[in-house]
Design goal:
Oligomer: single chain
CATH topology of one domain: Double Stranded RNA Binding Domain
CATH architecture of one domain: 2-Layer Sandwich
Shape: elongated
CATH class of one domain: Alpha Beta
Number of strands: 6
Distance between the termini: 139 Å
Structural class: alpha/beta
Helix content: 25-40%
Amino acid sequence: MRDAAPPHGAAWTRRSALLLPGVVAACAAPPPPPLEGPPIGYGHLTQLRLDVASIDIDARDPVAGPNDLGRELRPTAAEAVRIMGRDRLAAFGTQNTARFTVVAAQILRERPAGRVGTFAADPGETLNARFACRLEILAPDGRRLGFSEAQATRTRTAESTPAARLRVAESLMRLAMFDLNTEFEFQLRRALRPYLSDGPAGAAPPPAPVLREALPPA
């Protein structure tokens, strides 16, 4: 006597169980790429000590492009540049002001050739990073006594998924900020050398000399 055929639903369940691991493996997204570059933060580096009474870090963000991923990162691209300014600069003087400004801080998605409309999650999308800053020395009346500028650019190919794309953008920001920090110090030392101080950061100005007066004879 032949065994009765299994119910149609049972056969489908067994077949699905056999195929499920392959289906899950095929649908699983690849892990995001590892982060590259040092974290955003420069407190471990020697400060650039300026002979000014104060340092103004301009809080305004530069105008961003329509496809700027830098605004989606934490910190944002503009805030990363301001962190560099706060960490690297120190005031050591009694007059004038240093003003640090974010000139550019963006990571733009380049529209592939022949594509129109919104972006799709396609591999091969290009990310272009551009970071720039300016440091000015201002007199009490607002006159600019000197300035230095620095910029850095980098390009990377993005991954296909949004999460992976943001990971690539963060790596791109870290690497571009490493370049900007190096260039910033070089340009500052070249253009603003007269305003650099060798004294300890945050130290008070040296005291006035002590006057000695001879005592009258007893």
